[in-house]
Specification:
Layout: H1 17-55, E1 83-85, H2 87-93, E2 96-101, H3 111-124, E3 135-139, H4 143-155, E4 158-164, H5 169-177, E5 181-185, H6 196-205, E6 226-228, E7 236-239, H7 251-259, E8 262-265, H8 272-289, E9 296-300, H9 305-317, E10 322-328, H10 333-339, H11 371-376, E11 382-386, H12 388-402, H13 408-424, E12 431-436, H14 454-466, H15 474-479
Helix pairs in contact: 3-4, 3-8, 8-9, 12-13
């Protein structure tokens, strides 16, 4: 076979090397762009699938109240409080400091949740019956008493609140306005029978006791109250009925047992309902509001229920979240967390007497272990002791820079948040959640916040000087300076 050379038409020319190179580069770039866009699309789709799977693990977010929604009475307003970003602290530190705005509860504090749960549980167990003339007794520094008085009014109960005589006067006025009987006593150790919690228990035990007016009668004897068995050794329930049990076949006996007034000692310090109010309520709310993305939770402890309930719930979801205690001066919990000892010599329960000059902080701090604190200790990772000077400085800083008028325990919590962030060296948007327990409106008579008249300002400064508490607004500013992180945990 003879091959003849193929003759290419004159109008067809091979591309120049430069053109060939440009075409090759164009094809290569086009292929790369196609591959990149395909990979990016697949990545986005995969990420969305992961997000959907992650979101499916969470319950529905709490219902946010709107103008067209109706709740049932004052108790329907309790809970589902928002998280508020503390802008000044967050911006200065490069993290997200978020406060659970518990001061928006109808009773004005986080204790609304506890009071409601204690009363609900007592009614569910048959220990309390509404509108029977029953009376609730509690020993408190104020906030729990206000919450109990609020709910008691709505449920048809009377209440007696025993409290130290050095608490802010605004709390006493609020209690009296709600119809509570208030008894103020000198601050004392828990070992003293006249300590306010012990007195509340005594008052409940004596509820319904009648003295016979006819002393000549041979049957003239004191009628002692009957104790109704409860599921807690600390909760005390008494009845004015003639017997603790009733005859099922005797309608009169049953009616007397169920309708007669009862005395109920709530005992927030030892009552497990305190813990459960936060484990089943506040903790899940925080988890949903942050979509499960938080790095630390900070709280003080008075009874221990808040940090125990919220901390236990968060740890059950993510054990890597840091749980931190904020403890004021005069409290022994800091030493218990850091050193395994409940108190040091100067804070010994039974010798230390808490007077006004000991601390300006109300609502948190204690020198004994309670059932609720016992539930908290296993999950607390760190603790910070907050001085009165730091609490005063933070309170005034928040008013000046954020317009937030918060109480002393809230100020302590936020100081602890700042110290934690500095210790951990965080500055990349980590989320730290804390509790804003109540507002400053309950602390006018305490010197946390500057007043706007010359006379009241002088009284505040005089109070602080007598208590030897420095008045230094620069304290918080110094804490926010960009210094290297402190020692690690």
């Amino acid at each position: 076979m003879i091959w003849f050379p193929l003759k290419i038409p004159s109008w067809i020319r091979w591309p120049s090397p430069s053109t060939t190179r440009h075409v090759f580069y164009g094809v290569l770039i086009g292929f790369s762009l196609s591959l990149t866009s395909t990979s990016f699309t697949l990545y986005i789709q995969s990420r969305r699938r992961r997000q959907r799977r992650f979101a499916a693990k969470f319950e529905q977010r709490p219902i946010e109240l709107r103008s067209d929604e109706i709740v049932s009475g004052v108790t329907g307003l309790i809970g589902n409080t928002p998280l508020v970003r503390i802008n000044s602290l967050s911006d200065a530190l490069g993290v997200e400091i978020l406060g659970k705005a518990e001061f928006l509860n109808p009773g004005g504090s986080v204790k609304d949740r506890v009071a409601l749960r204690m009363i609900d549980d007592a009614e569910r167990l048959g220990l309390l019956r509404p509108y029977t003339g029953s009376r609730i007794f509690e020993g408190t520094v104020g906030s729990t008493g206000i919450s109990i008085a609020t709910i008691a009014r709505a449920r048809g109960y009377d209440c007696t609140i025993i409290m130290p005589d050095d608490v802010a006067e605004e709390k006493v006025k609020a209690l009296k306005a709600l119809g509570a009987d208030v008894e103020r006593v000198r601050p004392a150790s828990i070992v003293d029978k006249k300590q306010y919690v012990n007195l509340a228990r005594q008052r409940a035990a004596k509820f319904g006791r009648l003295d016979s007016t006819d002393k000549s009668s041979p049957n003239s004897k004191k009628k002692r109250p009957n104790i109704i068995e409860s599921n807690s050794a600390s909760v005390l329930v008494t009845t004015t009925a003639s017997r603790v049990e009733f005859d099922m076949e005797d309608p009169h006996s049953k009616d007397e047992y169920l309708s007669k007034p009862r005395g109920y000692f709530a005992d927030q310090f030892e009552n497990r309902s305190n813990y459960e109010a936060h484990y089943n309520g506040t903790g899940p709310e925080i988890w949903r509001q942050t979509n499960g993305r938080l790095d630390a939770f900070v709280s003080g402890a008075g009874t221990g229920g808040t940090i125990a309930g919220i901390g236990q719930y968060i740890k059950s979801k993510n054990e890597n979240v840091v749980i931190v205690l904020s403890d004021p001066e005069g409290s022994g919990l800091y030493n218990k967390v850091k050193h395994g000892v409940m108190f040091d010599r100067k804070e010994t329960e039974g010798t230390k007497r808490r007077h006004q000059v000991d601390t300006v902080v109300e609502g948190i701090g204690i020198n004994r272990l309670t059932n609720n604190i016992d539930l908290a200790l296993p999950i607390i990772d760190d603790a910070f002791r907050i001085t009165d000077a730091e609490a005063v400085s933070m309170s005034r800083y928040l008013v000046k820079n954020d317009g937030l008028f918060l109480g002393s325990s809230s100020a302590c919590n936020l100081v602890a948040c700042v110290k934690l962030v500095r210790r951990m060296g965080w500055a990349e948007g980590q989320k730290v959640v804390t509790i804003l327990c109540d507002s400053g409106s309950r602390h006018y008579s305490k010197p946390l916040l500057p007043r706007f008249t010359l006379m009241s300002a002088l009284r505040n400064d005089e109070y602080l000087r007598k208590a030897h508490i420095p008045m230094d607004p620069q304290i918080v500013e110094d804490l926010l300076l960009p210094l290297p992180p402190l020692e690690p945990l």
